């Protein structure tokens, strides 16, 4: 199967009738200039739900008639986004209908893949949906049609421009509104434009690197804080090298997990709301925080004023707008993370930091991450550990949003970047399955495991049909706690146990549902030898669902109450707020 998934064309504009006059030639041709094209294996290169426009294009260009998934518009962006994301290159998506469907705003904002969104089909005789204004807050760049009745020649300029923006700096969606008359127009093109390419990232001045190195060398209790930007800039190996050279204990955000292997001696895992107690306590004691490709999100920092109160901050981010936005840094560097770390590494002295590492070791022993039930398939941690034990490091893990997502972030031993696909920021339920399908199409040799919840899976259940049709190697591990668990947990902890609209009274039979979509499905609740059944199901090629019940009362702990300092986390043993030990 061809692995080069570059393009997504998307349309559900109605029937296939009266399509003779419609042409997407110019648009498609300019996209082709950028490597977005259907290859020999159309199936692997373009996703689409046929409607009038795409169908016409395919019939014209390839002389074939096709119709395949994904099956829903609403959050299909997840499905589509991960294929280009895996390969860190832009893709394209016609999002016109999807923007208007529930949840897509979250979808656009919450995923950081380098997407080019190509929105189309504004019919002149229909009400203009004001696409650019609707999405103004969501995209990095939205270019309204400067004239009401633009000509197709405009595409020759704007598409290279959009690709340049999509490929430059911090990843994020770009939206181009292509009116229908423009799509239908035929133009003579004398000279095709040069494809838009990434602008070279800003380079840090040498003196900033000298200052950074001096701060790192002088620090007594430094911590390296890695965000998703490390993964996007391909900086994980050099971040590991820096941590090792200067003996820097290292924390990661949800999006940065895998940058440093989970079992690395210097890894303190994920920081923030659901971190191990020792992680947040170490941060409380640090005197220098080296933040790279991270944005001081409130899930990471807790109450900002109490975050790393003793630390000076070095903040490196490709997006200058992040620097000083939430925390005033001692040193701010607006530049590409990889370039900065590569040039910082030789400037930093090799250090062992015995006292600080001993202190961190002490905190680890005294305040560990409790994982009750780690040996039981009936408990969340045990199930996640058993899945991890049955897989190799080539596996890709995706999640939906909820307790299961946080349990996996805590317990799954992620050891490499780009093995972890989850919806951060405005996390959106329904992300996991389509993202897993996209990843599996991009990396067909790997096993993709999608951890999902009983609430989240229902958001995009129709994608089971896509998974079956494409035969993707996706295993859904459905952690069924018969509730919207994260909501139930918050109601339990912070609203006097007044649980409301967070429990299911009539649970669907998920195993039967999966089988109805032609997937293999096993129920660990009923298996005689659940461990063996689990391993066999993970080994079985093709799409499958593994169902496991989880007690509704299970909680993700520790948990920092909303608005509280990270040191005031609720921990498992006592279930009571604790004070900082510092
Ligand atoms: C589309 C969407 N709707 C609502 C939410 C708010 N929300 C976050 S987690 C959650 C519960 C998720 O339930 P489930 O998928 O069963 O996961 P669990 O927490 O039970 O593991 C909800 C409703 C969201 N993030 N996305
Ligand atoms: Mg649930």
Structural write-up:
The chain is α/β, with parallel strands linked by helices and 582 residues long. It folds into three domains: 5-183, Thiamin diphosphate (ThDP)-binding fold, Pyr/PP domains (Rossmann fold, 3-Layer(aba) Sandwich), CATH 3.40.50; 206-366, Rossmann fold; 380-556, Rossmann fold. Helices cover 35% and strands 14% of the residues. It has a six-stranded parallel sheet, sandwiched between helices. It has a six-stranded parallel sheet with strand order 14-13-15-16-18-17, with helices on both faces. The chain has a four-stranded parallel sheet with strand order 3-4-6-5. α12 (236-246) packs parallel to α15, α13 (277-285) packs antiparallel against α16 (354-366) and α17 crosses α18 (403-411). 54% of the residues are buried. Magnesium ion binds at residues 402, 453-455, 481, 483-485.
Keywords:
single chain, 582 residues, alpha/beta, Rossmann fold, 3 domains, 6-stranded parallel sheet, 24 helices, globular, disordered N terminus, binds thiamine diphosphate, binds magnesium ion
The gist of it:
By secondary structure, the chain is an alpha/beta fold. The chain contains 24 helices and 18 strands.
Q: Characterize the main sheet.
A: 6 strands, parallel
Task: Write the CATH fold name of the largest domain.
Answer: Rossmann fold
Given as residue ranges, the uncertain stretches (5+ residues, pLDDT < 50) are 1-25, 37-52, 62-129, 574-582
Number of helices: 24
In order across it, which strands form the biggest sheet?
A: 9-8-7-10-11-12
Number of β-strand runs = 18
What is the class of the largest domain in the CATH system? Alpha Beta
β-strand percent reads 5-15%
Q: Examine the secondary-structure arrangement and name the CATH architecture of the largest domain.
A: 3-Layer(aba) Sandwich
Described by its quaternary structure, the protein is: single chain
What percent of the residues sit in helical stretches (DSSP H or I)? 25-40%
Kindly state the mean pLDDT as a whole number? Answer: 79
């Amino acid at each position: 199967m061809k692995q080069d998934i570059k393009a997504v064309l998307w349309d559900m504009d109605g029937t296939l009738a009266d399509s003779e006059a419609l042409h997407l030639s110019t648009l498609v041709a300019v996209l082709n200039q950028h490597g977005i094209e259907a290859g020999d294996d159309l199936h692997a290169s373009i996703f689409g739900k046929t409607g009038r426009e795409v169908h016409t294009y395919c019939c014209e260009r390839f002389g074939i008639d096709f119709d395949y998934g994904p099956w829903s518009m609403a959050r299909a962006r997840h499905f589509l986004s991960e294929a280009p994301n895996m390969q860190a290159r832009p893709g394209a998506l016609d999002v016109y209908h999807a923007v208007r469907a529930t949840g897509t705003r979250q979808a656009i904002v919450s995923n950081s893949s380098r997407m080019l969104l190509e929105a189309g089909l504004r019919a002149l005789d229909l009400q203009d949906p004001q696409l650019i204004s609707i999405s103004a807050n969501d995209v990095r760049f939205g270019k309204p049609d400067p004239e009401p009745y633009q000509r197709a020649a405009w595409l020759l300029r704007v598409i290279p421009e959009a690709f340049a923006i999509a490929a430059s700096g911090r990843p994020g969606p770009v939206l181009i509104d292509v009116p229908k008359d423009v799509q239908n127009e035929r133009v003579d093109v004398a000279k095709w434009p040069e494809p838009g390419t990434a602008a070279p990232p800003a380079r840090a001045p040498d003196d900033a690197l000298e200052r950074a190195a001096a701060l790192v060398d002088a620090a007594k209790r430094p911590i390296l804080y890695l965000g998703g930007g490390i993964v996007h800039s391909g900086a994980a190996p050099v971040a590991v090298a820096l941590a090792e050279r200067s003996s820097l204990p290292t924390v990661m955000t949800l999006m940065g997990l895998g940058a440093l292997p989970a079992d690395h001696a210097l890894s303190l895992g994920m920081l923030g709301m659901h971190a191990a107690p020792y992680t947040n306590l170490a941060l409380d004691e640090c005197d220098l925080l080296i933040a790279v490709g991270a944005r001081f999100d409130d899930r990471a920092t807790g109450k900002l004023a109490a975050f790393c109160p003793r630390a000076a901050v070095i903040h490196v981010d490709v997006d200058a707008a992040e620097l000083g936005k939430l925390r005033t840094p001692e040193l701010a560097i607006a530049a590409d993370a990889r370039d900065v770390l590569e040039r910082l590494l030789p400037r930093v002295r090799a250090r062992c930091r015995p006292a600080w590492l001993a202190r961190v070791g002490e905190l680890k022993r005294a305040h560990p991450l409790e994982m009750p039930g780690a040996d039981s398939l009936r408990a969340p941690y045990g199930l996640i550990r058993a899945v991890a034990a049955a897989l190799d490091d080539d596996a890709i893990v995706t999640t939906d949003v909820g307790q299961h997502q946080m349990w996996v972030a805590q317990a799954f031993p992620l050891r490499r970047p780009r093995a972890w696909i989850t919806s951060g920021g405005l996390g959106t339920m329904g992300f996991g399955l389509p993202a897993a399908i996209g990843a599996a199409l991009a990396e067909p040799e790997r096993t993709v495991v999608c951890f999902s919840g009983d609430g989240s899976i229902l958001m995009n259940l129709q994608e089971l049909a896509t998974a079956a049709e494409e035969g993707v190697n996706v295993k859904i591990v459905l952690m069924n706690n018969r509730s919207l668990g994260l909501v139930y947990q918050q109601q339990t902890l912070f609203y006097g146990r007044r649980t409301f609209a967070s429990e299911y009274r009539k649970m669907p039979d998920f195993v039967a549902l999966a089988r109805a979509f032609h997937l293999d499905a096993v129920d660990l609740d009923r298996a005689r030898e659940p461990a063996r059944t689990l391993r066999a199901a993970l080994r079985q090629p093709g799409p499958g669902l593994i169902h496991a019940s989880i007690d509704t009362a299970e909680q993700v702990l520790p948990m920092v109450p909303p608005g509280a300092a990270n040191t005031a986390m609720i921990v498992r043993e006592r279930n009571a707020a604790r004070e900082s030990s510092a």
